[in-house]
Amino acid sequence: MSAYLDTRVSLYAGRLWPDDALTALIDAPDGTVAERLIGHGLPQLATGYDRTGGTQDPRSLEQRIIAQILDETRVLVRPQSGAARAFLTFWTARFEMSNVKTLLRSKMTNERPAAILARLIPMGTFGRLDNEDLAHAEDIGELLRRLEAGPYAGIVRRARRAFEQSHDPFSLDAALDRGYYEGLVQCAQPLEEAVGAPFRSLMANLIDRINLVWLLRYRFNYGLPPAEVYYLLVASHYNLSGARLRDLAAQDSLETVLAALPAAWQARLAGVTDVPEIFARMEHVAAEQALRVLRSRAPGIARAFAYLILRERDLRAVRAVLRGRHLGLPDDDIRLALRRAPVELN
Predict the structure, then answer these.
(1) Which whole-number Å values give the CA distances from 35 to 32, 67, 69, in the listed order?
(2) SS3 state of residue 329
(3) The Cα angle at residue 232 between residues 253 and 286, in degrees rounded to 5
(4) Which of 28, 33, 41, 164 has the fewest Cβ atoms within 10 angstroms?
(5) What is the pLDDT of residues 141-159, one digit of tens each?
(6) 3-class DSSP state for residue 340?
(7) For residue range 11-36, what is the model confidence (pLDDT) as tens digits?
(8) CA-CA distances (angstroms) from residue 85 to 78, 82, 149?
(9) Could you give the count of Cα atoms lying within 13 Å of 166 in the half-sphere of its Cβ?
(10) If we measure between CA atoms, which residue out of 162, 36, 177 comes closest to residue 101?
């Protein structure tokens, strides 16, 4: 099974988009876009691309991209067992959490069940929720009760408590996000012990980036007090530990937060002035690390996770390009929107 997984990951790695290929997609004539997408293993996107111009609506494009991610993840899960299989399966639950948010928001606005179901992400074999049943819940209270009886009971229970205290949709979304990523950290712990540094480095880059970006956004964009910000962050044993996060949340400006980071982080984030640029810089570091793991002799689960991280980064970039082309944006504006620096190894 290990040989099968290593071979499959190596084959999939050939589908990743070099930065020059992404640039070529921006510059490509309309008639060649579908061919370029197929060449990088994206037939689902090519099928929906009109050669006279990008006529896909963004929602359809989003669903096609997620379907591609789920299809490739399904192949990588197939030879796995135990903790590795559980981890990759839970990794896909991010999309089902998005469906949970859609269901909850729709109940707040009394949307019709048929309209709700049309907007949900098809999860295929990874789906664990009965969307038809949930969409027909009478109100948000009934929907939360049904969710608490399902596979994400622990995540939803904490989110419900947060919502009952504030009746703020933001609190509900933030609690769901925190609950999901804390569940992912729990799924990752057996693999960190078994696989070691290659896998742990991928998780550390992911969770540290999420926590720093959330901290800055909650503290300075939304103006939340330090204690509430800290409560909404993912409990972490990585580089940004709980004690450090508590200290960072107490800072009174973006600049003082950056100055309180470890020296290596300050060097990586030198000159940044906003949260999106911080996210882009940290994602770039994570992509470099993922590429190192993918090209290494690390165990199959680490290489598979590294590939999925890189593939999703690529697909977000492809989505931005196709949307930009559909909207008729100038090529330079599309490149600027990507905020994507080339990934290179020393």
Answers:
(1) 5, 19, 19
(2) coil
(3) 75
(4) 164
(5) 899 999 999 999 999 998 8
(6) coil
(7) 999 989 888 888 889 988 888 888 88
(8) 8, 6, 24
(9) 13
(10) 177
Angle CA 270–201–343, to nearest 5: 55
Spatial distance between the Cα atoms of 139 and 137, rounded to a whole number of angstroms: 6
Helix 19-27 crosses helix 331-338 at what angle (to 10 degrees)?
150
Structure tokens at 220: 């300075």
H-type alpha helices, the chain: 2-13, 19-27, 30-39, 43-47, 58-77, 82-108, 113-119, 131-135, 140-148, 153-166, 169-195, 197-216, 226-232, 242-249, 254-259, 263-268, 275-294, 300-327, 331-338
Phi–psi pair at 328, nearest 5 degrees: 75, 25
Token representation of residue 103: 């269901």
* Confidence at 346, pLDDT banded by 50, 70, 90: very low
For the packed helices 169-195 and 153-166, what is the interaxial angle rounded to 10 degrees? Answer: 150
Residue at token pair 């330090």: 226
pLDDT digits (tens, 9 = 90+) for 176-229: 999 999 999 999 999 999 999 999 999 999 999 999 999 999 999 999 999 999
Higher pLDDT, 328 or 339: 328
Q: Which two tokens stand for residue 159?
A: 């989110």
Runs of H (alpha helix) within 139-235: 140-148, 153-166, 169-195, 197-216, 226-232
Sign of the Cα pseudo-torsion (176, 177, 179, 184, in order): positive
What contacts 207, CB < 8 A, 6 or more positions away? 181, 185, 234, 236, 238, 240
